[in-house]
Amino acid sequence: MSLLALLKGRRGASGFGYASTAEEVTAGLDLSGRTILVTGVTSGLGRETARVLALRGAHVIGTGRSADSAREILATFGPNTTAVACELSEPASVRAAAATVTALGVPLDAVILNAGIMALPRLERKYGYELQFFTNHIGHFILMQGLQDSLTPGARVVALSSTAHHGAPRGGIEFDNLTGEKGYGAWRAYGQAKFANLLFAKELARRFEGTGRTANAVHPGVIITNLARHLNPVMKFGFGVASVVMCKTVEQGAATQCYVAVHPGVARISGQYFDDCNVAAPRADAADAATARKLWEVSEAIAARFA
Length: 307
Ligand SMILES: NC(=O)c1ccc[n+]([C@@H]2O[C@H](COP(=O)([O-])OP(=O)(O)OC[C@H]3O[C@@H](n4cnc5c(N)ncnc54)[C@H](OP(=O)(O)O)[C@@H]3O)[C@@H](O)[C@H]2O)c1
Description:
two-stranded antiparallel ribbon, binds NADP nicotinamide-adenine-dinucleotide phosphate
């Protein structure tokens, strides 16, 4: 048996592993009566996550860049779904999304911050900020600001990070280069955004201490989805090779976020990074509480610009 086959068949302490699917990790769970918000349900992992959570009986609130795009997908998962417009790179849209969810008056048992973009080949900015950082991190940060009061006492927040966080600059976040003007690399910027997602979960977990709520970050695996849409041909080739070697199916890729969001075994775990449905070790400097706190404060200041 090859090393890869062994890796793919391996299961960790949770009883799940690389090859587990979202359906497997939620098998036997009755999620009726629970409401779970998932960002980015129009494609890839978000779509599969929404499908499986709805299959298990949860009321799924799914966001898309437009309500119509989310509704079109969610309608195929049954009647217990709600579509909300949330364009993450537009703070006004994000705040409107949070207000719409709050107005529903339905407490959220889990929030899965799934939507994202990857490795834009050239520097792009929104409101002066590098677009991957602004979309993947600041967009979700503003969303969570607006959803704070909608969380149940035991709510779980799951942030999609990535093993690509290893490609972030030294220290994780270049606070003096959030515009990208002092230098830009597609993977470096994606790595930084995913590092930010990880730090966000760490700091949120710290702020949740003593409340019963949890926050964790996950790496879903490497999965061929629309995420690769921005890559140039050379980058696409590299991603394709990595995917062929390590590739998970979308069903497997959605497993870790579903596991962390709803499995009883994770109810009391907070501030961790999960890979293959098990707690894993992120890059060493991702444990730096001071950086996580600084990112939070910088993010608050950025968000305040759009209040
Ligand atoms: N696939 C992988 O190998 C992999 C590995 C590690 C981490 N991840 C992470 O997993 C998450 C899901 O990725 P995926 O592979 O499922 O990608 P995907 O198929 O491209 O789906 C991304 C989702 O995010 C939405 N989105 C993108 N930009 C947005 C914006 N500005 N505002 C609102 N929504 C936006 C997309 O909406 P549209 O359909 O309208 O574009 C789509 O619903 C991402 O956070 C990614 O970083 C993926």
